[in-house]
Structure formats: structure tokens, C-alpha cells
């Protein structure tokens, strides 16, 4: 099969196995060139391991610290007629690289919110790892079925309190236009917290501790985006931001509930980047295209792997972590500092349909977007026939 990108709206509906493998290898190379001296994790559970920040966490744990990694993801396998998802191919490539480096790697594909998955993972940890000493929580999902009530909740991306009108860039139509978003109802806010808040993170830690597969002194972190004024109305102070605030509550609850095991839970605030999750958020393609421009000019641009390698090195396993007043690890300072934000704001205010491509780094954004699905990578020959049937 010759595989070319099929982009529909903010998503690409297919993926290239060879391209995904090349992108995984590139991240592995980065981590191998930035190996830390410090001791790190040994047995790591990555919940949401197949793309974006979770994949970068798995790569850093394995290839930076030599850790055994067990991953969980929700990906589609390929068929004769349809490619697998990017996360499927990324996981296959990660397994191959890890195993040829002599590192344990296994992945369970299914719904991480379910109790069945938690039980399967516990059995796997007991059989293969004994206990885990690091749990990364990196899920991004539009819905969650609560295993206790059986109710399926959907998350919403809406402002809180009042309607909001702002600029956005429609990647499909190549158009800068205004978008008006009505404020969320109380129910929509509550449902978004159910999906993307801290409840499931807590349930994971409770399940692992109850099954005695959580090591003494284990660390755990869940990822958040805080941002600044430009994104607050649609992110930080919006429905998703309310859900992310709930992560702060959950981190404190995990620390207190599992204090006998000396569990250390932190929320980690990371920078805005192109991932499958962020490209679905209104305003983000425009905002990220502008920060790419500014941060590349400043020499501070980072991708998932640089952010996560830094998080492990400086915060999770470093002596001098940057913590904020909420006890969160902060890796977003190069984006959120006032000087950089002022430059982004100046560009934002000037941006029109006519000058968008000159003012922004949309070329860089689009390249990163296609790369998420294994496309637009120089070393890959996209005219070649490739077999989509890649297995783990
Ligand atoms: P992503 O879409 O690249 O990754 C999501 C992962 O979750 C994938 O591995 C997917 O398979 C898995 N997943 C989704 N639903 C699942 C389910 N029901 N069961 C099992 N696995 C499931 O997203 P990302 O951007 O890397 O986001 C990860 C976390 O980082 C999120 O909490 C997000 O809010 C946060 N974050 C993202 C950004 C950003 O700019 N992308 C910035 C800061 C923080």
C-alpha cells in the first residue's frame, strides 16, 4: 500500500508505519544523546503511552534511565484496507527498539478508565515487574465511562462564566476567522471534570496500592497546561482548565492517602505543542503557530521529548525542581514568561488572513502535525509500497 496523508479537519485519519517508526527513533536518539547521570525510575507504568507527552515519557524512562516500561493506550490496529493509528505504529516501533536494546516493554491496548484494564495491568505488573516506582498519567480523551455508575461523560471545550469571541485559524480551510463560544453550563463543566479531572488518576493509584504493586517512595505525575492570558479564556479558565484544577486536588489527595508508602504525586505543567489532543482545541493552532515563530527566534523552541527529558532530569529525578505555589512542576517557563508572551501577543494582535503565513510559523506547525502521523519526514520515501499490517 502507498500511504499518503488523509487530513480531515483537525485530524489525519491514517498513519504511515515507516514514518512513525522514524519519528520514534528520532526521540530515542535525542534521549540517548542527553543521558542523565542521576538514578532514575526502574519500573514504569505509562497511562496514555502511545503518542504525545506519554510516548515521550516512555522513551525517556526507557532510553534515558534503562527502565522497564508497561504502557496503556487506546489505539486501532491496521487492517488489509486501512492503516492502524499513529499510536499503534509508534508502540510497535517502541517495542522493537526497546527489545533490541534489551529493555522490557509491553503495552495493553484498551480503555484505561475501566476497572478491567486496571485489573489486567495489576496482573501484568505482578507477573513481570513486581512493583512500579513511577506512574505517568498522560491521558487525553473526549469521553470517559465511570466504572462505578456506568455513565459515559463527554468533555466540552467552552469558556466558563461568559461567552468569548476570539481569533482562530481553521487548518482545513486555511482561514483566520473569529470564533464565538457560548459559556459552558454547570453540567458541561462537571462532565469535563469527570473526563479530564483527577478522579481516574486517584483510582489508578488506589488500585495499584491496594494490590500491593506500588513501590515504597513511588512517584506519580499527571500533565497539565496552564498557559497565559491569550489561552486562558479557552483553556486555563475554561472547562478544560477546571478539569485540570481538579488534578491539583487529586495530587494532594494521593499524597495524603498514600503517605505510608511515601508516594510523591505532582502535577507537571508543560508547554503547548502540536499533538493530536491540542490540534482539536479552538485557538490552539493559531497560538501554537505564533509561539513556534517566537520561540524558534529566541532559540527556546522545544518539542515533547525535550520537555519530558527536562522534566525527568530537572524535576522528577533532579535535585533542584522548579515548583510553583501549588506544588506543581513547571516546565512551561520558556513559553509563559512575560517577555515571550508580549511578543506572541503583539503578533496575535496583528494577525489577519492576509499576513498569517508571514507572521506565524504555520509551516513548522503543519510539519509537526503531519509528523504526528508519520508524514513529511525527509528520510521516508512516501512513494514506496509499505505493508500496513505491523504488529506488536
Ligand atoms: P495525545 O492525544 O497525544 O495522547 C493521548 C494518549 O492517551 C494516547 O496514548 C492515547 O492512546 C491515550 N488514550 C486516550 N484515551 C484513552 C483511553 N480511554 N484509554 C487508554 N488510553 C487512552 O495527547 P497529549 O497532548 O500528549 O496529552 C497528554 C496529556 O498532556 C493531557 O493530559 C494533556 O492535557 C497534557 N498536556 C498537553 C499539552 C499539549 O500542548 N499537547 C500541553 C500540556 C499538557
From TrEMBL:
Keyword Cytoplasm tagged? no
Q: Which Gene3D superfamilies match?
A: NAD(P)-binding Rossmann-like Domain
Record EC number: 1.3.1.9
Report keywords, A-Z: Fatty acid biosynthesis, Fatty acid metabolism, Lipid biosynthesis, Lipid metabolism, NAD, Oxidoreductase
The Trans-2-enoyl-CoA reductase catalytic domain is annotated at 82-317
Q: Where is the Enoyl reductase FAD binding domain?
A: 323-386
Q: Where is the Trans-2-enoyl-CoA reductase-like NAD(P)H binding domain?
A: 2-79
Catalytic reactions of this protein: a 2,3-saturated acyl-[ACP] + NAD(+) = a (2E)-enoyl-[ACP] + NADH + H(+); a 2,3-saturated acyl-CoA + NAD(+) = a (2E)-enoyl-CoA + NADH + H(+)
UniProt entry tagged with the keyword Transcription: no
Short name of one Pfam family: Enoyl_reductase
Q: Where is this site: Plays an important role in discriminating NADH against NADPH?
A: 75
By its UniProt entry, which InterPro entries does this protein fall under? Eno_Rdtase_FAD-bd_dom, Enoyl-CoA_Rdtase_cat_dom, FabV-like_NADH_b, Trans-2-enoyl-CoA_reductase
Annotated residues that bind NAD(+) are located at: 48-53, 74-75, 111-112, 139-140, 244, 273-275
Q: In which pathway does it act?
A: Lipid metabolism; fatty acid biosynthesis
Q: What are the binding positions for substrate in this chain?
A: 225
Q: So where's the catalytic machinery, residue-wise?
A: 235
| Similarity-based family | Belongs to the TER reductase family.
Assembly description: Monomer.
Q: What job does the chain carry out?
A: Involved in the final reduction of the elongation cycle of fatty acid synthesis (FAS II). Catalyzes the reduction of a carbon-carbon double bond in an enoyl moiety that is covalently linked to an acyl carrier protein (ACP).
Know the name of this protein? Enoyl-[acyl-carrier-protein] reductase [NADH]
Amino acid at each position: 500500500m502507498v500511504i499518503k496523508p488523509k487530513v480531515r479537519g483537525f485530524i489525519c485519519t491514517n498513519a504511515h508505519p515507516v514514518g512513525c517508526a522514524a519519528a520514534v527513533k528520532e526521540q530515542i536518539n535525542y534521549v540517548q544523546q542527553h543521558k542523565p547521570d542521576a538514578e532514575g525510575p526502574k519500573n514504569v507504568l505509562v497511562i496514555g503511552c502511545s503518542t504525545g507527552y506519554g510516548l515521550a515519557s516512555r522513551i525517556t524512562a526507557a532510553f534515558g534511565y534503562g527502565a522497564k516500561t508497561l504502557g496503556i493506550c487506546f489505539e486501532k490496529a491496521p487492517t488489509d484496507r486501512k492503516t492502524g493509528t499513529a499510536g499503534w505504529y509508534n508502540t510497535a516501533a517502541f517495542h522493537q527498539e526497546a527489545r533490541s536494546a534489551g529493555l522490557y516493554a509491553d503495552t495493553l491496548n484498551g480503555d484505561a478508565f475501566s476497572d478491567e484494564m486496571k485489573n489486567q495491568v495489576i496482573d501484568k505488573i505482578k507477573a513481570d515487574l513486581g512493583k512500579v516506582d513511577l506512574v505517568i498519567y498522560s491521558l487525553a480523551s473526549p469521553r470517559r465511562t465511570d466504572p462505578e455508575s456506568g455513565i459515559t461523560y463527554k468533555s466540552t471545550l467552552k469558556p466558563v462564566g461568559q461567552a468569548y469571541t476570539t481569533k482562530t485559524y481553521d487548518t482545513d480551510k486555511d482561514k483566520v476567522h473569529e470564533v464565538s463560544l457560548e459559556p459552558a453550563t454547570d453540567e458541561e463543566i462537571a462532565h469535563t471534570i469527570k473526563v479530564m479531572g483527577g478522579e481516574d488518576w486517584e483510582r489508578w493509584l488506589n488500585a495499584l496500592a491496594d494490590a500491593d504493586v506500588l513501590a515504597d517512595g513511588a512517584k506519580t505525575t499527571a500533565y497539565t497546561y496552564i498557559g497565559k492570558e491569550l489561552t486562558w479564556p479557552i483553556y486555563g479558565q475554561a472547562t478544560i482548565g477546571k478539569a485540570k484544577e481538579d488534578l491539583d486536588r487529586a495530587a494532594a489527595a494521593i499524597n495524603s492517602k498514600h503517605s505510608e508508602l511515601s508516594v510523591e504525586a505532582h502535577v507537571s505543567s508543560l508547554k503547548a505543542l502540536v499533538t493530536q489532543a491540542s490540534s482539536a482545541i479552538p485557538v490552539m493552532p493559531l497560538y501554537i503557530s505564533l509561539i513556534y515563530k517566537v520561540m524558534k527566534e529566541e532559540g527556546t523552541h522545544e518539542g515533547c521529548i525535550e520537555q519530558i527529558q527536562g522534566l525527568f532530569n530537572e524535576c522528577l529525578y533532579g535535585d533542584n525542581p522548579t515548583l510553583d505555589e501549588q506544588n506543581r512542576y513547571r516546565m512551561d517557563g520558556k513559553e509563559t514568561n512575560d517577555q515571550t508572551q508580549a511578543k506572541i501577543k503583539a503578533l496575535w494582535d496583528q494577525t489577519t488572513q492576509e499576513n498569517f503565513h508571514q507572521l506565524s510559523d504555520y509551516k513548522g506547525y503543519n510539519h509537526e502535525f503531519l509528523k504526528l502521523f508519520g508524514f513529511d519526514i525527509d528520510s521516508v520515501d512516501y512513494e514506496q509500497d509499505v505493508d500496513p499490517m505491523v504488529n506488536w
